[in-house]
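Following up on my earlier message about arginine. Here are the inputs again, as you asked, copied directly from the submission form:
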Amino acid sequence: MSESRVRRPRRFLVCEPRHFAVQYAINPWMNPDRPVDVDLAQEQWQALIGAYRAHGHTVESVEPVPGLPDMVFSANAAFVVDGRVFGSLFHAAERRPESVHYDTWFKAAGYDVHRPESVSEGEGDLVWTGRYVLAGTGFRTTREAHREAQEFLGHPVIGLTLVDPYFYHLDTALFVLDDDNVCYYPEAFSAGSREVLRRLFPDAVLATREDAMAFGLNSVSDGRNVFIAPRAEALAGALADHGYVPVPVDLSEFHKAGGGIKCCTQEIR
Ligand code: ARG
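Thanks, got it. Here's what our run produced:
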């Protein structure tokens, strides 16, 4: 069945974890008293970049800035569809200075950046399905930003409410497999949002809390290969049963900051 799954080459934007650290706590995963091993983080991150390139994807990077330890989570910096860049306004004061550095990269690459007026954390909460945008709210990105994104992008934006603080960004609870399907952890969503997801994706691959806590939903799919945390074993098995090819990449050091594979990856479309 995996013969029928088709990989589409992607263009990814990343940021090297040279200055990665956990210096403040803005989500339940973060504990500044628990040190991160920056050398191990670098190794893990290089393995992710290597896996993307080995599967034919293009990877470009933004220069990391000292004093911005979460800048490695490039997914949060913008949401790009049709070459339109919907920039970010971070919820936490500690992360707000990241935006200008990403905006500089986008401008140099030939893109105009729309700066949202309301809190919006890029692909952390805005997820492109191929036809419309799924947009998370509850912890970071606001409803007002959903409205702004729809107005700017001209694509329908469907709001989903997150209810579990461990899954504070939509990309920790759901990822897109291909143009037809998604994978998610239902309990991360409000009852109404769960019903919306059921109606939109009746054949979705559902994950358990264990998979979600292992950052299994913070995955990147190219339509065939799914770059996924190795501890999300049950989920990797379910994906294989559906014809996808799990590619395990361990970013355990980044879990200490509440991030994983998808958080370290922004797609430019
Ligand atoms: N420490 C970062 C924060 O709390 C982690 C961001 C993870 N990124 C993501 N796309 N979920 O903002």
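One observation from looking it over: The two ends are 28 Å apart (CA to CA). Hope that helps, and feel free to reply on this thread.
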